[in-house]
Amino acid sequence: MAVIANIIQDVNKYLNKYQDPRTADWFLMSGPFPTLGICLSYVYIVKVLGPKFMENRKPFNLKNMLIYYNFAQVVFSVWIFYQIGMGGWFTGEYSLRCQPVDYSNKSSTIRMVHASWWYYFSKFTEFMDTIFFVLRKKNDHISTLHVIHHGIMPMSVWFGVKYTPGGHSTFFGFLNTFVHIIMYSYYMLSAMGPHMQKYLWWKKYLTALQMIQFVAIMVHAFQLLFTECNYPRAFVWWIGMHAVMFFFLFKEFYNQTYNRRHRLAAKAAQNGVQNGLKQNGHASKSYANGHLNGHLKHDEKQNGVQNGVTKVSEYYVNGSSEIHQRIRS
Catalytic amino acids? Predict the structure, then answer.
């Protein structure tokens, strides 16, 4: 234990040599290990301890709590977005091309420093997204993308608040909180119940917006590799590579969730599943493949058409896809 304590002390001493003195004494800013410990604990809880705790228990009904939580996240995101904007992006003090860190105590600069810390803190409140999945036994929602995205963000933002609380990197938080306003609004409406589903047709576009966000962050960060700007190159790579990683993780999720649905629908159509609907909604009397016909013939029953094709046809024609079922849940 003494060896570990000495290592921690040496690491903190080295990292503190270059810290921003304005945030040095702030909560969780003394060193990286408290944040790292919280992140590792989060991963252990949502992947191991939580599912084991819920293994023999019924899912919790958290409808009202989810509505209140997501509403609180919307309000929190709006507030952080406004604070970051008033710290420079709304006032015209910040440039998209190059924005060095201002280490002065000017009022707008201090406002941005505080906004940066609150953005860092918001990454911990987002852990509740996963905790609620665990308590509702929605373990299939706790994907690799979800855990990596939530588990790595507090540690990533910690370095920014520790050394560069302001300047070019705040574009990440500025854009991200805007997306979170829309995202948590969607979650809040979804939590209200099935009667809201007709207003939530835009989930696919929310995922696309998240990918566009990371492309914009990539371009904004990596442009400094080709221009002169008094901003640390290490943070350019740090932010840019995070955006690259998250973009491909979200792209994989998009492909698995939406492209898979289209592939299944196309396959069903190719097999004649969706053929045979008249304008009045009844099955036609015959098609070339003979799969659907007012009443199924005896030999077709033996071939499993009634057992398979009819159910699959209802599944796709009525639109009760896997995605819709997941949204309802």
Answer: 149
**Nearest-angstrom CA–CA distance, 103 and 23:** 11
Q: Determine the Cα–Cα distance for residues 149 and 85; give it in Å rounded to an integer.
A: 24
Q: Within a domain: residue 1?
A: no
8 is a domain residue: no
Alpha-carbon distance values, 171 to 95, 157, 218, 219, 230 (Å) = 10, 12, 11, 11, 16
Task: Compute CA 325 distance to the chain's CA centroid, rounded to the nearest angstrom.
Answer: 20
pLDDT of residue 309: 37
pLDDT classification of 275: cutoffs 50, 70, 90: low
Same domain (yes/no): 277, 256: no
Give the CA distances from residue 24 to residues 31, 162, 256, in Å, rounded to whole numbers and listed in that order: 9, 7, 43
Q: Decide which of 225, 244, 263 is a domain's last residue.
A: 263
Kindly report, residue by residue over 188-207, the tens digit of the pLDDT.
999 999 999 888 988 888 88
For residue 45, report the phi and psi dihedrals to the nearest 5 degrees.
-65, -45
Q: Is residue 3 part of a domain?
A: no
> What is the Cα–Cα distance from 162 to 26, expressed in whole angstroms?
10
What are 3's two structure tokens? 């060896």
> Based on the domain organization, do 161 and 302 belong to the same domain?
no
List pLDDT tens digits, range 236-266: 999 999 888 888 877 877 777 777 665 666 5
CA dihedral (188, 192, 193, 196) in degrees, to 10, reads -70
Bridge partner list, 283: 277
